[in-house]
Amino acid sequence: MKAYFRYLTRAGFIGLFMVFACLGCNGVGQKLDKWQTSVTESVKGTLNFSDSDDAKRKNSDVYFIHTSQWSWETLGNVADWYTGDSSNWTKLAEINPNVDPQKVAVGSEIFIPVNLLKTRETLPQNYASAYCKECYRHTVRWPGESMSLIARWYTGSSRNWRKLAKANPRIDPNRIKKGNVIVIHTKLLKTREPLPQKIAARYTANYFAYSVKQNGETMEVIANWYTGNATNWKAIAKANPKLNPNHLVAGNEIYIPSKMLKTRQPIPESPSGPTADTPTPEPATVEKRVTPVEEEEIKIFGPKQFPKS
Questions:
Q1: 77: closest CA among 7, 38, 8, 125?
Q2: DSSP of 94-141, one letter per residue?
Q3: Most buried one in 11, 106, 157, 195, CB count within 10 A?
Q4: How far apart (Å, rounded) are the C-alpha atoms in residues 150 and 91?
């Protein structure tokens, strides 16, 4: 039996030798190379086709196509409208690698997986203003505002600034500007009371605030003492738009811009050496004390949560 197997083995080697001799080693190698190349190209072509935009267009059962029409569009807007969850923008970014997530060019095609769709209605033009209808919108107004301060006031934790930054991808969290609108989801919201100026001012360099000691104090006297010029009362009044400069009451906190400040010493009961330009305050009429406007607005979070630095 062993001799029989040895015979078969030798016959097999002889057969292979004859095949190579007929076709030539080089010819066989070339044919093998061609066959391997053709298979590789076929596989690549299939993969490219499956990942191409043309393939996605033809795959209407898998992808829905949104064509950008408005300059304000972002993947966050598109994801929120079509999928009901703005956080799905990361999935859209993976599927649409050539689209800028923060500023989608008009005319761009965005492929959205059908399994994420909540609506096939076209993204409306007024959606930018109606974006996230249930969300709260904070408009930046005061010097000293930051994403962390806004998160701390409205959500109760400054660490939520990352969530706010993610929900507002077109706003640089390190360069918030006056007029920026910060969208805050109701899931995070703890209060809808607007962020007071006095809270933001505490995070402004060289912040200074004067607390009115008694009813009847005038903005002119305060301006003259702290800035050296009584006419600066107009600039101080502008920096404190919620206060009535002609009707200050005890407890009002007046924010004085640091660039105007000449002294931090408290106003003496009888300032010495008044100049001719210094207005003489009229005798204060005794009025029933009223609660300052700013204190009325602070219900959930108040100044006690932000002690003066």
A1: 125
A2: HH-TTS-TTSPPTT-EEEEEGGG-S--SPPPTTHHHHSSTTSEEEE--
A3: 195
A4: 28
pLDDT tens digits along 56-106: 676 778 899 999 988 778 888 898 889 988 789 999 999 999 999 888 899
Region 127-148 average pLDDT: 79
The runs of H, that is alpha helices, within 24-114 are 25-51, 53-58, 75-83, 89-95
Burial of 48 (0-12, 13-18, 19+ CB in 10 A): exposed
41: left (phi over 0), alpha (psi -120 to 50) or beta: alpha
Of residues 249, 144, 253, the one with CA closest to residue 201:
144
Q: CATH number of the domain at 132-195, out of 3.40.640.10, 3.10.350.10, 3.40.190.10, 3.40.50.150?
A: 3.10.350.10
Cα torsion 186, 187, 191, 196: sign: negative
Ordered by start, the domain boundaries in the chain are: 57-129, 132-195, 199-305
Q: How far apart are CA 277 and CA 274, in angstroms?
A: 8
Dig out the tokens for 197 from the structure. Answer: 């100026």
> Among candidates 225, 195, 196, which has minimal Cα distance to 210?
225
Q: Residue 78: which of 164, 169, 148, 165 has the closest Cα?
A: 169
pLDDT category of residue 275 using cuts at 50, 70 and 90: very low
Run of H or E residues at 211: strand 209-211
Cβ-proximal residues to 176 (8 Å cutoff; 6+ apart), any chain: 140, 145, 146, 147, 182
pLDDT band at 132 (very low <50, low <70, confident <90, very high): low
Residue 102: count other Cβ atoms within 10 Å of its Cβ: 12
Distance from C-alpha of 271 to C-alpha of 282, rounded to nearest angstrom: 15
Amino acid identity of residue 25, one-letter, is: C
Residue 77: count of CB within 10 angstroms of its CB: 22
